Amino acid sequence: MQTFSTNPGKALSTRTGKITAAITVFALALFSTVSYIQSRPETPTTLAAYYSQQLQWQSCYKNYQCADLLVPIDYTELKTGTFQISVLKYPTTGEKKLRSLIVNPGGPGGSGVDYAYAAEYLFSPAILDAYDIVGFDPRGVSRSEPIVCLSDKELDANYASDSKPDNEQEFAQILIESKKFIQQCEEKNKHLTSFSTANAARDMDILREAVGDKQLNYMGKSYGTFLGTLYAQFFPDKVGHMVLDGAVDPTISNFQQGLTQAIAFDKAFAAFAADCTTRSNCPLPKEKSAAIAEMKKILSQVAKKPNKRLSESLVLLGIAAALYESATGWPKLRRAIKDVKEGKGDRFLALADEYTGRTEEGDYTANEFDSGAIIDCLDFAGARSVKQMKEDAKIFAEQAPLFGPYLAYGGLVCQYFDTPKATEVVPTKTANPIVIIGTTGDPATPYAWAQGLHKILTNSVLISLIGDGHTGQGQGNKCVDGQVDDFYLTNKSPKTSSCA
């Protein structure tokens, strides 16, 4: 999958929108200072033993429960050993519990533990009364055998580094950085080829059994829809109530995924610019092409004269971050553009830091950069050569003038990582229908991907949200939220295919 990336040396995320950004940062800070004592269970020696685990839930963080789950490092060779997966539960307060609802916010590299920690902000009281909200950090992520490749200072340098090579010298430099990144990952981590989403989907079935559910009830956002898709393919009879929001189409080529996403971000910026011109404080020209030209001019100026640690790539990352959620992101972007034109880059840095999880002290609260890059390579290692990517970059620039030149080399690090053959996704019919949500103006997971996934999951139902921003559930749209709640609570499949 070609996830959003502003630098070939990393793979940033397709993940949930800004509705939970502040909550997630708070949760990360809390988890970094509070711990709970959990004794490691006896190591299973058979797959049946993994499935028969009893989770040792312990109270943590006041209203939550924590546990660790053991899963095989290698499902084809159990003797390889075990990974310990961190799990958090927000227990239902209702008298008539239905079952558990397992959640994932996206990524790859997003923490399901942090997402479940925000349960009260993500779901309606009716859902919280009926379900335990359960989140887990997939293998390689955050608290679950984290993949760590770069130091905080190295992350700063990588995020800020030039992601749009304008000459052969700059292109040679990104090749060096990409190769170095993979070398560091291989030197610092064991079992690096075992962190695929396919294995995480298998882990999720062990978790389903451990929480006592006969079928999986799941909410996957953004990249989390790919995790759900693979689960559905591996365990079609175990699918209960599953909602995939901000869908990924895993069957199209890396080139098409990357290009479609670049075009979607350009489209989202155009929508922002059109709205901006209706406001008295708009810092952009009224005409669409002029607005894009103005933004490209700003990027060029920052590239020539960086402000503090602000770089061309971080400005673009700040733009992308603001486009995830129109209600709060667009006003921030207007102010950031106004400021940077006056030589002040703090607002763009704040937008970029919010996205990457960088604190004011310069620490990164998660390992999403490192884990996302490795997992992405394992899931969707592309067949294109470096030479072909270089040629394709011209198409990116033509069809997505603003974002295309920066996204053209996403996944370049995978050229230097020898990965096993990825799981091929095929049409699948599940025991129960799956609800897919696609937002027409979604920049990170373009609407066409939701349509594509709808064809792959043959008995799925597609809800189309006419609007801007990333993902649809929990964004305040009663049409979407009401149908999702009805699906989880009464098994009522959505009847309205389009919500405005």
Strand content: 5-15%
Radius of gyration: 22 Å
How far apart lie the N and C ends?
29 Å
Give me the side-by-side strand order of the main sheet. Answer: 2-3-4-7-5-8-9-10-11-12
What does this molecule look like?
- Helices cover 44% and strands 13% of the residues.
- It has helices at residues 21-33, 47-51, 112-117, 119-122, 125-130, 152-160, 168-188, 197-210, 224-234, 254-276, 288-304, 312-323, 326-341, 346-356, 368-380, 386-399, 404-407, 447-456, 478-490, and strands spanning 14-15, 58-60, 64-72, 82-90, 99-104, 106-107, 131-136, 216-221, 239-245, 435-441, 461-468, 498-499.
- Helix 8 (197-210) packs across helix 9 (224-234), helix 10 runs parallel beside helix 16 (386-399) and helix 12 (312-323) crosses helix 14 (346-356).
- The protein is α/β, with parallel strands linked by helices.
- Strand 10, helix 18 and strand 11 (461-468) form a beta-alpha-beta unit.
- The longest helix is centred in the middle third of the chain and has 23 residues, at 254-276.
- The chain is built from 19 helices and twelve strands.
- The strands form two sheets. It has a ten-stranded mixed beta sheet, with helices on both faces. The chain has a two-stranded antiparallel sheet with strand order 1-6.
- It starts with 13 loop residues before the first strand and ends with a strand.
Question: Which features would summarize this protein structure in a list?
Answer:
500 residues, disordered N terminus, ten-stranded mixed β-sheet, alpha/beta, two-stranded antiparallel ribbon
